[in-house]
Design a protein that fits this description.
alpha/beta; Rossmann fold; six-stranded mixed beta sheet; four-stranded antiparallel beta sheet; 25% strand; binds adenosine-5'-triphosphate; binds magnesium ion
Length: 267
Amino acid sequence: MTAAPIIRTQNLCKSFRYNSFICKSSKGTSPLQNHVLKDVSIEIPEKSIYAIIGQSGTGKSVFLKTILGMLKPDGGKIWFKNTELTALKQDELMALRKYFGYAFQNAALFDSMTVGENLAFPLKEVLRIRNRGEINRRVSEMLEWIELPGIESKRPDELSGGMRKRVGVARALVMRPEVLFFDEPTTGLDPVLSETINNLVVRVNKELNITCVIITHDIPAAFRIAQRIALLDQGRVAAEGTPKDLAQSEYQMVRDFIRISFRELDV
Ligand SMILES: Nc1ncnc2c1ncn2[C@@H]1O[C@H](COP(=O)(O)OP(=O)(O)OP(=O)(O)O)[C@@H](O)[C@H]1O
Ligand SMILES: [Mg+2]
């Protein structure tokens, strides 16, 4: 049984103008467009783990940023449950931001703040909680949950890379969002740390009942933990379905991409 979609995109399009250097060297007067997303339509089932995979530069991060409202699409629609996000005004969109958390590869912690202050930040700024006791309680509960209890007073540069990553996830989780987006959470980590982060994604999903959308280059992990996977290729959805659907895709390109991704592990 597939749950109702919590997020749905319909024919999402996004282009960027090439920079002026390239424009000047091109013929014609109209600016050259880099069409990054071309009619991307997907449905993310509620409370699932949904993976987005594909080659570098194919539009995965742009897709996520468009859903999160960081980039404005040129065309198409985005829904969060029954609300069409693309029809909202900026302030209405901001009011829905608390339902979305994100942990990006480069979403650095604020180095000038302690871990506790980093986690308190979204509680104060987004949820507007003013009660210090409640803020402290929620921060310490979250740190316990990621199995790093009592590190409130540490500074990010005192933590290992893996710890920083987990604190980044904790900061995204402390607001208890309904959907948590991860952009390459394991890139650059060793295999053991990658496994820790993949297990954390599964725990977020199972224990906290949060829908997780994960962009990853770790294809075997995507096949292991995700209920559904979308393969983006040059801004289009080349394949979408359960891991089994993708493995048995009628398209040679999809099967090749998966086969090569798994084979890279054997070197
Ligand atoms: N803010 C931006 N302005 C202009 N072009 C952009 C912008 N963001 C992304 N692009 C372009 O969009 C295309 C897709 O980029 P995107 O970051 O989505 O790729 P990706 O699939 O996430 O790749 P990777 O796996 O390497 O992270 C690239 O050609 C990139 O240069
Ligand atoms: Mg990316």
